[in-house]
Amino acid sequence: MKAKYQKVEDFFIEKINKGILKAGDKLPPEITISAKYGYSRMTVNKAMKDLEKQGYVTRIAGRGTFVKEKSVLRLLTDNVSFSDIIKQQRMTPGSTLISYNLLPSSKVPSATEFETPINKFHHTVRLRTGDDKPIAITEDYLNADLITKIDFNLLTTSLYSYLKKLKLPVIQNFVEIKAVRATKEQQKALNLDVDFLLMTLANADTITASNQRVPLGVFVSYYNPDFYTYRFNEAQQ
């Protein structure tokens, strides 16, 4: 049996998911919700805090609680695909190929960090969306010495799913996160209201069928800061 605060959460989640409550709509005051359900203010307050943590609402001191525009929240320790993260946020993922070429390692960011030299990389640039809204531009640099032929069908789905089919697990060596100035092309593609992006760079290895650890590639993403948030969860002691 669900707790009282969870019943309050479920009520508003259903209203939001069905579009009855839309982005920007104000929820009733906690005292009104409390009276409607016959629950304590503490119970309603917990429900509102949980809804905020889940990304359904935003609470503004002195103004109230408002339905939040759908956005993407990702834990820094996550190692899952962009498509899966979009699905977790109740959105439909999309991917459009912008460009593809074959690059020498000298043109690849952080390629020198790999212990094993790589001759060439498959370089793809894709626009990533959620519910048809532009959320990110991803640049993937895949080890062409390891993956000699690339399947372009993967570019409209999940790269992680494709790597799973090849039985190449992703093992991150490090992830860098920083704000960078957006180019005019990036601003146009992502419909940016600001002139900066949240950039992440991940350097990754893999384990081959012969049980060898080899470089997999470099994955660079440029996120619309209005729709994407990274969160670091400190390990519990």
Protein described:
The protein has helices spanning 4-17, 30-37, 41-53, 82-88, 159-165, 184-190; strands at 57-60, 64-67, 72-75, 93-104, 120-130, 133-143, 171-181, 196-207, 213-223, 228-231. It has 237 residues and is an alpha+beta fold. The strands form three sheets. Strands 4-5-6-9-8-7 form a six-stranded antiparallel sheet. Strands 1-2 form a two-stranded antiparallel sheet. Helix 1 (4-17) crosses helix 3 and helix 2 (30-37) crosses helix 3 (41-53). The radius of gyration is 21 Å and the shape is elongated.
Topology order in helix (H) and strand (E) letters: HHHEEEHEEEHEHEEE
Q: How many DSSP H or I helices?
A: 6
Name the average pLDDT.
85
Please give the order of strands in the largest beta sheet.
4-5-6-9-8-7
Structural class: alpha+beta
End-to-end Cα distance: 30 Å
Radius of gyration: 21 Å
The main β sheet shows up as: 6 strands, antiparallel
Low-confidence stretches: none
Q: Give the percentage of residues in beta strands.
A: 35-45%
How many strand segments? 10
Shape: elongated
